[in-house]
What we know:
Blueprint: E1 3-4, E2 6-18, E3 22-26, E4 29-32, E5 34-39, E6 44-51, H1 53-67, H2 75-78, H3 85-90, H4 99-109, H5 111-116, E7 118-120, E8 125-127, E9 131-133, E10 136-138, E11 143-154, E12 159-162, E13 171-192, E14 199-200, E15 208-209, H6 213-230, H7 239-242, E16 245-256, H8 272-283, E17 287-292, H9 295-304, E18 309-310
Helix pairs in contact: 1-6, 6-9
The protein binds zinc ion.
Amino acid sequence: MSGIYEIAIIGRATWQLHSLNNEGTVGNVTEPRSVRIIDPNTKKAVTTDGVSGEMLKHMHTEIMWILADKNNLCDACRVLNPEKFNFAIKTKKVTTKTAEDALKQALETCDICDTQGFLLERPTASRKSTIEFGWALGIPEIYRDIHTHARHALGERGRSRDQEGEEIEGITTQMVYHRPTRSGVYAVISVFQPWRIGLNEARQSKYTYDADDKDRERRYKLALKAYQIMFARPEGAMTTTRLPHVENFSGVVVYSTKPMPVPVISPLKNDYINEIKTIAKSIGNSIEFVEFSSIADFATKIGQLANNKPYKMEF
Ligand SMILES: [Zn+2]
C-alpha cells in the first residue's frame, strides 16, 4: 500500500435540464452563467455555459460536512460558517499570536479547515485548500432554454405563493418569472493534494505535520467519499424545481505515489485521455491512471483509493 501524493479527477459530466449556477436575477429574469472560451477542437471563440469552481468546491465541502463527525470540526465548520477557523479566533475561543500557531491549532482541530483551507484576519494567515476545482465548462454545444414560471399572488392577504398544480382561490395578480435550464456535457477538473493534509506551511523554520496520522487518514477518506457522492448528487442553485438530471461522468483519475505533480489536461479537448496517458507513461512509474466510464464506475474507482494512505513528506 503506497501513500498517495496527489490525485486529479479529469472528466466529462452530463447534466440535463439543470440550473446549478446563474449570473443572478434581474427583475424577473434569471441569467445562466456564461463564459467565453476558445474551443480547443475548433480553435474558435465560443460563449458557453459554466459552473464555477466556487460552486463545485461548495458542493464538495457540504458533503464532507454531512459525512463528518461534528466533534472533529471547529465551531464555525460545525454549522458550515464560511469563516471557518477565523471565527474561532475572532470570537476569542482560541487565542493565538502567530500565524504558525493559529494554523497549528486549526490543523489539530478541524477536518474541514485542514482540507478545504481558510483565511485568517489577525494574525494574517492563509491555509491553502488541499482540494481545488476549476470551472465546469460546457463542451460546445450546450442547449439552453428559458422556461416561464408563473407565481400567483393572493391579492387579499398580499402574500405570494408557488402554484404547483391546483388553482388557489382569490388570486388576483400574477408574476411571470423566466428561469433558465441547460443540458449538455461539462468538462470538469479537480486536484486533491493528500500529501498536504495536516501540513503546517506557515512555519518559518521547518514544515511539520500538525495533525496526527489517524486524523490525516480520516480526512483523506472523507474527502474521497465526498468526491464519490458529489457527481451522483450535484447540488447548487434552483435544485428545488430544477434538480439536475444526472446522467453520466466519464474520464480519468490520475494519481501519484511519489512526490510528483499530476498532469491536468482539459477534458474540453477530445483527445485529453490519450494525452494524459502519454504524459503519465513518459514520466515513469510514480504516476498511475484509471479510466472510468460512468458515475458508478467513477464512485467505485475513486473509492478504491481510500485503501491507501495520504503521502507523508519527510523534512
Ligand atoms: Zn473548521
